[in-house]
Amino acid sequence: MKKTLTVLLALAMFVGAAGLASAQAKKISIWCWDPNFNGYSMKEAAAVYNKAHPEVTIEIVDIPQGIEGKIEAGLMAGGAGLPDIALFQDFQIEKFITNYPGIFADLKAAGVDYSQFAGYKVGIMSEGKKVYGIPFDTGSTGLYLRSDFLKDAGLNPDSYRKNLTWNEVITLGKTVKAKTGKALIAYDNTDYQFLRMIIQSAGGQFFKPDGSLDLNTAATKAGLKVLKDMNDAGILYMSEGWNNWVSAFNNGDAAGMVSAVWLIGTIKSQPANAGKWMVVPTPSLVGVAGAQNASNWGGSSWYVFEKSKNKAIAIDFMKSVWASKDPAALGFYNTILKGAGAMGTYLPSRVGSNYTSKDEFFYKSQTVYADFSKWMEKVPALRYTANFNAMGTALTASIQKYLKGDLKTPEAVIADATEGYKQVSGN
Amino acid sequence: MNQKGSFAKYLNRMGWFFVAPALILFSVFMLYPILSSLYLVTRKWKGFTDSFIGLGNFVRMANDSLFWNALGNNFFLMLIQIPIMVFLALVLAVVLNQGIRRFRGAFRLMFFLPCVTSLVAYSILFRILLQTNGMANNIMLDLNLLSEPIGWLNDSFWAKMTIIIALTWRWTGYNMMFFLVGLQNIDSEIYEAAEVDGASKIYQFFRITLPLLVPVILFSIVTSTSGMLQLFDEPNILTNQGGPANATMTAALYIYRQAFVINSDFGYATALSYMIVILAGLFAWLQIRLLGGNKK
Fold it and tell me: Closest Cα of chain B to A90: distance in Å?
């Protein structure tokens, strides 16, 4: 009995020592969620870093679903099982900074120069004098249109390559529907992003500066009206969930959609559509002061955990590849733009050749990246707060009722969503 | 005497030694969480931020119409789906037990397979089949059974039906297995005696088979009910987080979303799960009282 115990103890010590040894090996792990996009970008970044630091192993883990929930579970368990670096959606991050104080490493103190990043990305990751993340991509949006369907409808695609208003889009949609039977815009009925993009383009906010909800704004009302008009005109192609939405425009069931620059990779996965797509600026909301022909969808940033055992290496990696004017680092930004359509927000990187080059996949070889990057400058900033998820949940349910006809007016939707928000958030 | 006492002591010690692993695991994974939930439930606990609010979480729960709506969905699904499933399972079991002689094993396997498929995989598959331009609608449109596609996932009524269909597909075979075992445990002599007395097959079914199967039916209803109260995967994946407009939101999904998706609100999620525990206990007790009476 005693002998067994001794053996077991010795074994335990050995395993413990082995664990310690592996912690000293230079290895960092990173969590993200799309192997063709952010995972790909990180892999390219790792390759750049490994040229100068071959001794560091960088492990990139793909968490396709529920990454936030997984991180929260890890945080509640005192950091067990968490990686050194993780990618967070911009709209999610304030929830983590507010509810989990102190979990991220302060990278400003570590010497990152944040004046070189797009300002709207840095604001949301700042808390007092501390700045936590390394901004990744932009979600600059545009209206994607199939030029061939426009031609089928007897229209000249070139006359739509300009700043449009939503009313002009509705007229266009009616023509396309009447002539070709196709709905103009693929719409995901399980999400509120389409409406949110419209509202953001007009400079609308969902929260007051003090963090309390305010849906009763001119931009929200006008956005809801336009959404209903589009639905009544039959120009929305209803789909349920992401995959269904993607197949709607990739298979040509719908003639277009509003989405961000990061969707380019998804569109290119359908080579048969080469030469057909064109992207025009996000349509603007007429009658709302400050309305722009630009908006944003998504975008995410990298964060280093304060408790990470390899914090120093992780920070050094992020600094020397993602926030450096070193030619190799700038070349990396140029590579991921071409390779995955990942448009970084590190401003000095925008000189890369791929930013200005023509893209054969698009109608008349449009310089899509130059266009998206130009529109990015005009994107009105959005206030997220820690309760953005609760707002989104409530608004999604209310606009589903609205498009079904259970709620009749924008005012009714706003009242319903405000009530829903109270229930969900407990505020 | 003395000898015997020390042997009893030894037995006692060995007994404790053998139950120790179970006891330790139980304390760590059951007792501790239950005790710590008593603490959690009195706090406004969001992530690492934490303050005492007494019964505040329960007050919030009382006013949370979304939660009550979700619980209502649980009961709606329960009241419709469980009777359909139990009836179907019973019919299948009887048919497989008496009607079909050939390929019995193959049929059993066929009906049982759905419940061992992955929850996520089958939910995604059903979603693809049932989307507006999916196979189910297309076939029915082609056969002129429908004039316009059904919004299986878009319409609040049909979304509930979707969940019912999916659950029935998945769990009927599972319950059928219990009924089959139950049927095989009924002594054939009883039927022979009934036959001699001139009882018809249908009379035999209602007077012999059904009463003798009551314990099995009870078991299947109790487990289905408690499973229904914890219904999570189907509304989360198949109907997109309880959509449309919370029409298929269930209590368990709402709890998960409060804790891990929307708010990081662990205190409130704990208060909500108390409600589920109380309800599940109440239901089990009720069913045993109601159906157990027949056994006399």
Answer: 15
**Amino acid found at A143:** L
Q: Any idea which residue has 């000095």 for tokens? A: A348
pLDDT tens, A393-410? 999 999 999 999 999 999
User: In chain A, which residues have their Cβ closer than 8 Å to the Cβ of B121?
Assistant: none
Q: Show the DSSP H helices in A144-272 as ranges.
A: 147-152, 166-180, 193-201, 218-232, 242-250, 264-268
Any idea which residue has 């029915």 for tokens?
Answer: B140
Calculate how close chain B gets to A389, using CA atoms only, in Å: 5
**Contact (CB<8Å) A240/B263:** no
pLDDT in tens, A52-110: 999 999 999 999 888 998 999 999 888 889 999 999 999 999 999 999 999 999 999 99
Confidence of residue B2 (pLDDT cuts 50, 70, 90): low
Q: Which of residues 314-353 of A touch B (CB under 8 A)?
A: none
Range list for CATH 3.40.190.10 in chain A: 26-138+298-351, 141-295+362-425
Q: Which of residues 85-104 of A touch B (CB under 8 A)?
A: 95-96, 98-103
Percentage of chain A beyond pLDDT 90 is: 76
CB within 8 Å: A240 and B153 = yes
ipTM (interface pTM): 0.79
Assigned fold of A26-138+298-351: D-Maltodextrin-Binding Protein; domain 2 (3.40.190)
> For residue A427, which of A395, A399, A390 has the smallest C-alpha distance?
A390
> For the segment B248-270, what is each residue's pLDDT rounded down to a tens digit?
999 999 999 998 888 888 899 99
Distance CA A7, CA A18 (A): 16
Scanning every residue of chain B, which has its alpha carbon at the shortest distance from the alpha carbon of A238?
B132
